[in-house]
Amino acid sequence: MTAAPHPLLQQAEGKTLEFKRDLSSPLPVLKTLVAFANSAGGKLVIGVDDARQVLGVADPLAEEERICNLIADGIAPRLIPNVELMSVGAATVLVVEVFPSSARPHYLAKQGLEHGAYLRLG
After folding, report:
1. Residue 2: pLDDT above 60?
2. Cα–Cα 20 to 30 A to 39, which of 13, 47, 105, 117?
3. Pairing of β 82-88 and β 75-76
């Protein structure tokens, strides 16, 4: 008997939820987090593909540290999301929760405010 899927994984991607397979290309991940911070907030789940298949992350603690470093180095002004590891069956996924920020607008540091600010729309 398989465990029931986590309620978060039963939701569709939308304004406040995004699934990413992994951190192999960090730019889309950072764009999503900036958009969440500049909009209504949201959760990014790493280790789940677009079809909501749970793949998990290979080294959860290393990936958690990596996402925190990517956020610290790549987003300005400083964004401090809630990052947690979540077990789904035998796999572990990373959940990055961003709250609407009072320090808006956030932007990708390398692109600057003019080109690196993103919003999340419907």
Report:
1. no
2. 47
3. unpaired
Inter-residue contact 81 to 98 (CB < 8 Å):
yes
CB 38 within 8 A of CB 103: no
pLDDT at 5 over 80: no
Convert the pLDDT of each residue in 22-45 to its tens digit: 999 999 999 999 999 999 999 999
pLDDT band at 50 (very low <50, low <70, confident <90, very high): confident
To which residue do tokens 């699934």 refer? 19
- The CA distance from 103 to 100, in Å, is 9
Please state the φ and ψ torsions of residue 88, each to the nearest 5 degrees. Answer: -130, 100
Task: Give yes or no for a contact between 104 and 117, defined as CB atoms under 8 angstroms apart.
Answer: no
Q: Is residue 75 within 8 Å of residue 106, measured between CB atoms?
A: yes
